[in-house]
Task: inverse folding
């Protein structure tokens, strides 16, 4: 019923709000707080493995918030633990990327990182310029859609609850949750008179998939060159999800 | 299960 859909949307939006690392207003106030030349230099003079470790820690923190977000999506906790993990293993990074668009300033192509806004040059010592450029391009494209916080919340839930992910035990059950979230997003877009966004959002899903496989590719490259860092210094949760 | 120990813990944690 319509009331059920309203409740579902409200729960997802609440969960999104409560598990966001930063509020939109907070980010807006910091919009022009950029890293200066010395600070950029300090990031650039880090070794490849130092910078990877640093970013792995930041990414893992963001993922932990996504896990909390997932737990409050109606229906998620009814899934088996195996399926919850399967969804998070493939979807948490995608949700982090969707959320990253909230931390992005399109006016100067910077992203909020470590307390200030950073351009691609800050990530130079990761030695994976193509991934960084692709991630920034994705954030730019997401921002161009000018989604509301409610739309971002529902879209994030839809990215996560995907019955086509590998290793699911009860695909049917995931499918039912997925349909309800899809219904919720359609409902919100209809209410906002922005139904045309649905098609554009599904296009973003394909880009997310390619970004995540690029991340995995880079991680394999890194692990081969710096096995010790990847094995001993990366956060355990990062290894569980991506290694 | 051992492979995803931390994820298990995070998911079982009822507080957020």
Result:
């Amino acid at each position: 019923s319509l009331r059920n859909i309203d409740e579902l949307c409200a729960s997802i939006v609440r969960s999104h709000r409560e598990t966001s690392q930063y509020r939109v207003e907070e980010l807006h106030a910091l919009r022009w707080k950029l890293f200066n030349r010395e600070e950029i230099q300090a990031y650039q003079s880090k070794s490849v493995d130092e910078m990877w470790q640093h970013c792995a820690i930041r990414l893992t923190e963001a993922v932990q918030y996504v896990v909390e977000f997932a737990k409050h999506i109606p229906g998620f906790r009814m899934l088996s633990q195996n399926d919850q993990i399967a969804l998070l293993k493939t979807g948490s990074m995608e949700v982090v990327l969707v959320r990253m668009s909230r931390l992005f300033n399109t006016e100067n192509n910077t992203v909020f990182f470590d307390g200030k806004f950073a351009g691609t040059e800050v990530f130079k010592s990761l030695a994976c310029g193509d991934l960084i450029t692709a991630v920034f391009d994705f954030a730019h494209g997401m921002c161009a859609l000018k989604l509301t916080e409610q739309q971002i919340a529902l879209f994030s839930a839809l990215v996560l609850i995907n019955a086509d992910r590998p290793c699911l035990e009860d695909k049917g059950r995931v499918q039912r949750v997925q349909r309800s979230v899809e219904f919720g997003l359609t409902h919100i877009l209809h209410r906002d008179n922005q139904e045309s966004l649905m098609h554009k959002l599904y296009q973003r899903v394909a880009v997310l998939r390619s970004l995540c496989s690029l991340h995995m590719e880079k991680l394999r490259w890194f692990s081969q060159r710096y096995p010790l860092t990847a094995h001993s210094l990366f956060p355990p949760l990062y290894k569980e999800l991506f290694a | 299960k051992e492979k995803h120990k931390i994820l298990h813990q995070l998911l079982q944690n009822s507080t957020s």
Remarks:
- Residues 2 and 12 of chain B are 14 Å apart (CA to CA).
- Chain B touches chain A at residues 3-8, 10-11, 16 (CB under 8 Å).
- DSSP finds one helix and no strands in chain B.
